[in-house]
Amino acid sequence: MSASSDRKVVLVTRRTRLEELVARYHTLAQARFYIEHLGADFSDYVNESESYAQSLRSTVATLQAWGRHQIIDRSFLPNFVFAADDIVIALGQDGLVANTMKYLEGQPLVGINPEPRRWDGILLPFEAGDLAPVLQEVAKDRRPTKAVTMAEARLSDGQTLRAVNDLFVGPRTHTSALYDIELGSQHESQSSSGIIVSTGLGSTAWLKSIVTGSFGIARAVSPGKALEYKPHAWDADQLTFAVREPFPSRGSQTELIYGAVTGAHSLKLRSRMPDNGVIFSDGMEADYLAFTAGMEATITVAKSKGRLVV
Predict the structure, then answer these.
(1) Residue 3: its pLDDT value, please?
(2) How far is CA 4 from the centre of its chain?
(3) C-alpha distances in Å from residue 189, one per residue of 29, 34, 264, 277, 284
(4) Which domains occur in the chain, in start order?
(5) What is the mean pLDDT of each run of 10 residues along the chain (310 residues)?
(6) pTM to 2 decimals?
(7) How many beta carbons lie within 10 A of that of residue 63, not counting itself?
């Protein structure tokens, strides 16, 4: 196949569970011993890794026929510079698509499901065998894309972090988060187990679990009360925040615990945690911003939207 465009393709990969185990325990035999010692099925790890390797080989073969391409592990994403006309591919689970998208500035992102029998792949509409014609259509701007709203946290020192699903603001460990919160004219000092700020895409995930738990408690306290939760569209120009386990006391309030973040009303937070305060996104705890005493964070809808090829 000859490329109809000289646009570079960037393939983002991730290590499988088996590769992570081998890296941790140094050899395949040691990894096997660890898993089987716990009574788990080691063959499941092997089968998953082999399926991923097969999809990777097929994807790389397509890219070699395409022309200009580059392959990077997801661990390099925070420091990788994408060109404006790059076409990006994520080969992995939904989380890899989300983790890749937040580092893009509107470049089209193609999600490849390495094992459809294992992964539902809400963000993975394609398999490795579909890639060649999809790339041709994307390069010619003939392939539809779906807009995905992202959240952005900006600290008072200029650091920023985006999220495709959600931002978590709180302690690194299981301790109380202490902070001041402001939305429009409302302002409180709070103590909780942290704040979740969700996008439309994320409104079907972590935020939904928080609301579902709250509804369950509310129904137990007030039987018969009708409660309903509706997730937002992926491209909705608003975020939703929820305070987890807010604690009322003389020094902490619990009125400002759920609401919408829009272009007109950003969410502002000031940390009162002497240490261990963090902001991380999309479940990637290793990629975080320190949010310690005196630091201010402004959370808004990101100006740039993700473009998921469909």
Answers:
(1) 46
(2) 32
(3) 53, 46, 22, 15, 27
(4) 9-143 (3.40.50), 151-302 (2.60.200.30)
(5) 72 96 95 93 95 98 96 94 97 96 97 95 96 97 97 97 97 93 96 97 94 90 84 96 96 96 94 95 90 97 96
(6) 0.89
(7) 22
The first and second tokens of residue 182, run together, are 């402001």
